[in-house]
Amino acid sequence: MAAKVDPAILEALGLDSQNTKIASHGGSGFASTFKLSSVVDGKEKNYFVKTGTGADSELMFKGEHVSLNAIHAVVPNLCPKSHANGACRENPNKFFLATDFLELGSSRPGGGDSFAKKLAKLHTTPAPVPDGFDGPVFGFPVTTCCGSSPQDNSWKASWADFYANNRLRAILRQGVASNGSDPELSSAVEKTAGVVVRRLIGDDHIKGVYPVVVHGDLWSGNHGRGRIAGQGGVEEVVFDPSAVYGHSEYELGIMRMFGGFGGSFWKEYESLVPKAEPKEEWEDRVALYELYHHLNHWALFGGGYRSGAMSIMRKLNTKYG
After folding, report:
1. 210 DSSP assignment
2. Among positive and negative, which fits the CA dihedral 69, 59, 223, 104?
3. Bridge partner residues of 138 (DSSP)
4. Roughly what angle, to the nearest 10 degrees, separates helices 170-179 and 183-191?
5. 3-state DSSP call for residue 82?
């Protein structure tokens, strides 16, 4: 017997239950994942659906929904569009996210712009000014999750203020809550947030920083080649974002942490998105941004990621503290 599609999903997508079926597809560490197939205007159309239970899933899916559409609004062929998220009708404690279907690893001929060119467009297009503000600010309209860690994206006029408080100090609090008190690590994070952040990315120091849409969790596992919504050829794509309106170089921290992006990518990307001034501090700025992801992995998984965070902080605190 075919699995039944929850009425809330059908209603959100405007689909007829008689022409719609759903089947398990792929896997996720935080959700159940499905391929939903239906008929729209006489043509077959597929969607990708995630479901999960509890408030954590509700928060995660809402953040991913807004993140995907923020990226899609700037570079439509870089990621799937998200069509809906919300509570299931048959189980109000179960939540869903429904996006365009992304056919990864398709054998169809490839095409489209290079990944460097697409990411450069994302990273050089000013983020929209949110309602209630007269000019650009850093943050995001909703809470997002990096892994399963909720991220407070409250608006800040200063990027240094946002990174120190909404990222470094915030993830330290989550890590201590998960792993217990760690005075050495806490002291190092406080020195980095209080001194090094201002020295490296302070508003009166780094030049030309303005908010752009950043994917936020762009390790190589969230990048691939695929076909979006059954249209066109195979292109460079990203997925599972944790977006923020932030400094473009913030993206590079996790990209460097896990690797997987080759020399040709970096050469082309830098030709399109020049390093911010002072350029000689670029490596240290990227290390500062990588630090957040070491701390997040420590908060989520404990153990070995602590040493990576401490290594970065010892170097930066010695040099700039």
Report:
1. -
2. negative
3. 156
4. 180
5. strand
Q: State both tokens at 16.
A: 């007829």
What is the C-alpha R_g of the chain?
Answer: 20
Q: Which two three-digit tokens encode residue 291?
A: 């630090």
Catalytic hit among 6, 217, 240, 284: 217
**CA distance linking residue 98 with residue 10, whole number of Å:** 10
Active site residue 284: no
The answer on pLDDT for 191 being more than 80 is yes
The gap between the terminal CA atoms of the chain, to the nearest Å, is 64
> What are the start-end ranges of the H helices in 273-321?
282-301, 305-320
pLDDT at 109 over 90: no
> pLDDT tens, 289-304?
999 999 999 999 998 8
Candidate from 14-28, 74-88, 265-279 with smallest mean pLDDT: 14-28
Round to whole Å and give the CA distance between 23 and 78: 25
Q: What share of the chain is helix, strand, coil (3-state, %, to 5)?
A: 45, 20, 35
pTM of the model: 0.97
- Note the pLDDT of residue 110: 73
What's at 54, amino acid-wise? G
